[in-house]
Amino acid sequence: MRVDVVEHPLVAARLTVLRDRGTQPPVFRAALRELSTMLIYEAARELPAVQHTVATPLTPAVGSRLATAPIVVPVLRAGLGMLEAALGLLPEARTGFVGLARDERTFQPHAYLESLPANLADYPVLLLDPMLATGGSAAHCLNLLAERGAKGMVLVCVLAAPEGVAALDAGDFDVRIVTACIDERLDDDAFIVPGLGDAGDRQFGAV
Ligand code: PRP
Predict the structure, then answer these.
(1) Which of 100, 54, 36, 46 lies closest to 70, judged by CA?
(2) Is 81 in the pocket of ligand 1 (CB under 6 A)?
(3) Complex-level ipTM beyond the 0.95 threshold
(4) Which neighbouring-strand residues pair with 132?
(5) What is the pTM of this model?
(6) In angstroms, what is the span from residue 22 Cα to ligand 1's centroid?
(7) Which of 24, 29, 105, 180 has its Cβ near the most Cβ atoms within 10 Å?
(8) Phi, psi angles (nearest 5°) of residue 204
(9) Any residues with CB less than 8 A from the CB of 63 and at least 6 apart, and which?
(10) In this entry, which stretches build a coiled coil (predicted)?
């Protein structure tokens, strides 16, 4: 497992908007989309590419394109706010969905949707979820993806708690985590501190 924290002033500025409790849903959604673009740009840095030649107006030039269209997997609900950014950068990508809700008492993920290709062995896979807290939700998803043959997965998350990073490390997943920040800790409700609250509720204005 590898963890890449993206250190960039524009990333930090968008993260600050997300953290601010006064940020309303429309601005929250825009900041999440923009921050996701930057994180996914970094996440895509190691995608395999193939060379091909194009004709410029002057002469042939060797260029490149992605070798294989990736699969992006937003984790519902909160991961949906990262999907538009992913498809903007990776228009050839296909999308799988996993629906999870964390039990507020046990903190265990309850799965309510699983819509994934049967075989992921030949595809780069990017898992999108703004929050890595206990790591239970990410571990559930990474197991689903690995069962389908996915290798070298990338988890793109806005914030990670040290506890969640440690849990994925202990699970020995073949995953690279790309995040804007590793926060201090989890509180007694397994919320990331200082965090940004509930990313699902805040982007959708859920009641
Ligand atoms: C949040 C978040 C992750 C999960 C992280 O989702 O978006 O999916 O919790 O927690 P964990 O690392 O402890 O598993 P939540 O279950 O609140 O659902 P939502 O996306 O519908 O808000």
Answers:
(1) 46
(2) no
(3) yes
(4) 160
(5) 0.97
(6) 21
(7) 180
(8) -100, 0
(9) 51, 52, 53, 54
(10) none
